[in-house]
Amino acid sequence: MRKIKVAIMGATGMVGQQYIRLLITHPWFGISLLIGKKSAGKPFGDTVEWVGEYDPPSSIKQIVVNELNPGVGGADIFFSCLPSDVAREVECEFAKEFAVVSDTSAFRMEDDIPLLIPELNAEHLKLIERQRKERDWRGLLVTGPNCTTSGLAMALKPIDDLYKVKKVIVTTMQALSGAGFPGVPSLMTVDNVMPYIKDEEEKVARETRKILGRFANNRVAENDMQVAASCNRVTVTDGHLETLYLETEKKVNVAEVKKALSEFKGLPQLLKLPSAPENPIIVREENDRPQPRRDRNSGSVPGMSVVVGRVRKGLDGNSLQLTILSHNTVRGAAGNAILIAELLLKQGYLEK
Amino acid sequence: MRKIKVAIMGATGMVGQQYIRLLITHPWFGISLLIGKKSAGKPFGDTVEWVGEYDPPSSIKQIVVNELNPGVGGADIFFSCLPSDVAREVECEFAKEFAVVSDTSAFRMEDDIPLLIPELNAEHLKLIERQRKERDWRGLLVTGPNCTTSGLAMALKPIDDLYKVKKVIVTTMQALSGAGFPGVPSLMTVDNVMPYIKDEEEKVARETRKILGRFANNRVAENDMQVAASCNRVTVTDGHLETLYLETEKKVNVAEVKKALSEFKGLPQLLKLPSAPENPIIVREENDRPQPRRDRNSGSVPGMSVVVGRVRKGLDGNSLQLTILSHNTVRGAAGNAILIAELLLKQGYLEK
Amino acid sequence: MRKIKVAIMGATGMVGQQYIRLLITHPWFGISLLIGKKSAGKPFGDTVEWVGEYDPPSSIKQIVVNELNPGVGGADIFFSCLPSDVAREVECEFAKEFAVVSDTSAFRMEDDIPLLIPELNAEHLKLIERQRKERDWRGLLVTGPNCTTSGLAMALKPIDDLYKVKKVIVTTMQALSGAGFPGVPSLMTVDNVMPYIKDEEEKVARETRKILGRFANNRVAENDMQVAASCNRVTVTDGHLETLYLETEKKVNVAEVKKALSEFKGLPQLLKLPSAPENPIIVREENDRPQPRRDRNSGSVPGMSVVVGRVRKGLDGNSLQLTILSHNTVRGAAGNAILIAELLLKQGYLEK
Amino acid sequence: MRKIKVAIMGATGMVGQQYIRLLITHPWFGISLLIGKKSAGKPFGDTVEWVGEYDPPSSIKQIVVNELNPGVGGADIFFSCLPSDVAREVECEFAKEFAVVSDTSAFRMEDDIPLLIPELNAEHLKLIERQRKERDWRGLLVTGPNCTTSGLAMALKPIDDLYKVKKVIVTTMQALSGAGFPGVPSLMTVDNVMPYIKDEEEKVARETRKILGRFANNRVAENDMQVAASCNRVTVTDGHLETLYLETEKKVNVAEVKKALSEFKGLPQLLKLPSAPENPIIVREENDRPQPRRDRNSGSVPGMSVVVGRVRKGLDGNSLQLTILSHNTVRGAAGNAILIAELLLKQGYLEK
């Protein structure tokens, strides 16, 4: 099979680097373009401040970064991890002709743009037909959620299906890589926790409701669960840890919850997509798990499974407590977007 | 004024060291005895693994650590920060003759033992009369709460007074010093968070209800607020950070909450006790406060004030969100116990 | 005594904040001006990103930051911790009329500018007469060394006096605050060490030779010891740790070295200057000292003493090994500069 | 090929866990026994405190840990990472019948025991003949060096071959995993560096001389280079960083050094042993490399290559400075021992 050509818009950032790491060995996709705003015109290897453990291959380092210009073409799928303000200007331009899969917040909440976690709401891809018609696009635009939302929504889905979740009280302990690079100054992170992340709490609440909403009559009806978040930054490189307190309509049963989480599968598992982990959710029985460093790369596709632990009752029979961990730049960004692209390809959305 | 002689039982531990630091300049109390189990018979300076920033003075280093033997006497107040199992064996023996103020969990929940935060429930000291009668003690035993409870109960008190708190969902990010020394292995703390602290969540719930309970008919009637805790250990030396979600009986008003917290004073402030901070609660308006490293020593008596930030509405008009910080070995242990002792002295409980 | 008015140029930076912390309680000096380039025109409290543990007092927060304009006057001493390129443009302008004490590298190596650690080379202040004559200044310019040099030169001086040091092999483990704010991105500091600090190794070598040089014939003859440095950045907030291997002309005696270091005093001690620590050098006998967190604030003036440990023989009788710690923003910057200003005042250099 | 049965003595420790991680996918060796002192009799999964990122496979967890009893047999190669005192008692007992490869310090410096880095001194294996004869063993005992020595000796070898190294001044910044588990308390590692590691400096000096010594007349004549070490513990999980200052007999040429290091190969590369990295030494040109987190797993066999950077001249033409990084539990322990075992097998030492 000839590889589908993909471009990375915002390639020099933290998430851009994660895209490169994941795509260089991808069975279906091949990187044909790296696109940047400030870095355009320079060889990628000269302009990137690479922060990961492994160096990019020299074939990637030699790519000259392209301008942000939809007229150039050169790829079938454009992954976007641009800064939000830049994304707002250009993503729709690219979507006129090309498939755009975006991790940015720019268009996540638009009525006709799917906000997708492929295991949870693949059905929302039906919005593509509407966006093409209403916006006169030959391409498409699909978005992935905020890095904090992605783990949360995944863990909530099977529980909401069982008991209907009415209220979610979530406190996050988020990784530094979620703030990009250079991100948080080190002097703020030694012997410290930052108790606030700008705009994050609002995003978590509204994105969760959209993702877990139902598609009907050509639109997504938001889930009516209420979400209150407290977002904190801790001194961890990768992996967002979140404690959840849930109130449900029906009585809960802890064993049933664990079973539903462990056995949960979505369309990507059914279709055996390359980036689909065997288990989107892994349940740990030990009291002291999940831990960011030890569990963030769990499962058959490292970084793509949400790890859940400490599932226990809340204050009454209609409440639950649990702790979840999700790799913020894999399932929370690049990995989820690549899985979206795999689903788009498999379901024929990339055919012209 | 001649100084009151005080002893520290468990002097070589983390909290013991904090006692020493706070007492060496105390205006009323003078250290006359250091007591230990394993370290007995050795000069303190030779047996302690001192972890604080400043070395103990040489006058302290030269003290030969005493055995755990109530017959020895030699002090008027015995501060106890022994391991809980040892505390259970000996604290009551000491209380037969002496005033014992304990940070251990051994007797906190006993019916006739006050669990005290002097600003909140000084009235519970009336249990001393009962304990003396029922147990035939000439001394007394008063306990301080778990390090996580102390900040929580302080912040809840003014809000409970205003609106009656029905439900508390609290997630903690606790400091390493709370686990004692050697405590948590460093390999567990680099690039990681530990999502569990043994027995902590249960203690937080039940101690909060006792502290905020009312004294009547010679007993403490527990407050009926419900508390669900998720306790985590983060890579911070000192200072427990906690996010709170509260549900209240009456409608909340954020400005009113901030005012009540800021203006809150207790009996120690009225009596101008030496370890009483001018403001037991400090409210910060900045979004990114409180932070452990920058705020744990705030206020007129470093480590004794609880710092509150991010006060905001919850999901409806009867709910609140806030973030609190409390120094776990000062207000959460040694400092609170010393304040208890000051109150005991001032109120005449130490007279024979 | 009426306080001498002092200005801080570059007040919003890391070192600027340290100046403020040290000067607000200074017995001789009072802050009359805060000066900045980008922050000019705004109240200090609104423009500074304060990183220290304690907030600046509100009297300081309300000061409107002044422009960098020597014509404005308003102070007798101008402390400069400006970025080096800005310093190069303006320090000499200020020195035409005012006393300037600078932590920047801009003019440290100029022939007629003293590079001063008051305990070591107070005699170099005689260059002031020369600079005034040659440059037609009514003010003066004195500089302090790089934060890494300051601890090194202090520890070397008594040893050089005893044995004549020929060769210094030094490896540093430097604190994050040495890189300013925002400084090093946190993603580079978790589970990592940065093995390089730009330009640092060269500065350490040449500044040490100048400081330890002899004043004669109106100039400083550099000390001819050779210095080879390897500079690293470790995940510590404050306090530069350095391992030294020294080769000397004369045979060494470890006990004699410890005695000379412990007993070392300089002119500031003799004059009892307010910022002069009782012992500029503190020698520790324990194998595992000095440690940054526990020793950086040692001594009678916190942060002003260099702490030395692990003094031992090298590979032969003419070599020594030792480990030193110096607080990089106190003795290594603001504290040393304030001590310079105290000496200037005491020796009559500030009289017009 | 049927796999050779190997046992791990001290399997529950940090290095034991690293052995398991490396051996579960080994092409030649299969784990047949896990041996422990305290953990004997329990299933490995119940007794180990696993600290790595990935869980051990359940096939390993189910193995019941064996006693330390040479009579049991059950393996052809016994890897030992026992505590040194235990090792001293039992390794020779096992060596009577079996091949023992040990990471412990117990017998490293014995005259007839090879201290081996397979790329450097494979010739020292000829001591096996002597040890068998003198000690009447049918088995054998080969040791690997201390984790700090291994990187140092590797980097020194090509330079010593070129110029003859006379003096080595080395400062280490060592990882926490080198102290085992629980190892260093976390309260000692936050915002701190520990400037001392017990016995380490002596080991580094004498082991380096033995490894780089020449085999002749049935014994190893130690290399006469002098080594002075200063060993520090920094807050890094894995990877020892070391700065080197070298003095050589012949004039140095930096380009020549880099070439010699980059091109260095040993017998394991020639024999294409499974754990032999393509390049035992990797030279980086960037100023800010090597870094522990980013470079410790470099190369074709992660953790087996020593990464060298900042190669530059010293104070004169006969001196060199460089910075090296070596993975302390892979090349510094388990990985090096497995490579020794591969070499033993390939060279026929395991045939009975």
Report strand % of chain A: 15-25%
- Tally of extended strands of chain A? 13
Query: Which structural class should the secondary elements of chain A be placed in?
Result: alpha/beta
Mind telling me which CATH architecture of the largest domain in chain A this is?
A: 2-Layer Sandwich
The order of strands across the largest sheet of chain A is: 9-6-10-13-12-11
Largest sheet of chain A: 6 strands, mixed
Helicity level of chain A, as a percent range?
25-40%
Number of domains of chain A: 2
Determine and state the CATH class of the largest domain in chain A: Alpha Beta
What is the strand and helix layout of this fold?
Four copies of one chain form a homotetramer.
Chain A: E1 4-9, H1 14-23, E2 29-35, H2 44-47, H3 58-61, E3 77-80, H4 84-95, E4 99-102, H5 118-121, H6 127-135, E5 140-143, H7 147-163, E6 165-174, H8 200-211, E7 214-216, E8 219-221, E9 226-233, E10 240-248, H9 254-263, H10 267-270, E11 281-283, H11 292-295, E12 306-313, E13 319-326, H12 330-346
Parallel strand pairs in A: 1-2, 1-3, 3-4, 4-5, 6-9, 11-12
Antiparallel strand pairs in A: 6-10, 7-8, 10-13, 12-13
